[in-house]
Amino acid sequence: MNSYKLSDEVISQIAKLIQLAILTGTDVIDNLRTVRVQPSELEDGSLTLTPEYREMAEKQVEKLLTEVTELSSTQLDA
Length: 78
Description:
The chain is mainly α. It has one domain (5-77). The chain is built from three helices and three strands. It has helices at 8-24, 28-33, 51-77, and strands at residues 5-6, 37-39, 46-49. It has a three-stranded mixed beta sheet. The protein is elongated, with a radius of gyration of 16 Å.
């Protein structure tokens, strides 16, 4: 049976998801279920984020930042 540890990248992503859940008031469990990992190419027994997940996560953050900027502009105009 193989044993893996979480890479710093995966741990950092989990921390971001917890912060995101706190800021948005969403359930962190739903966010954690979306995480996709794969064995590291370094063959050090760790798991890293898949490239597809990494790209999707970055796009979600960009979208949220855009929405926050738009909301801020709307509130300043009011």
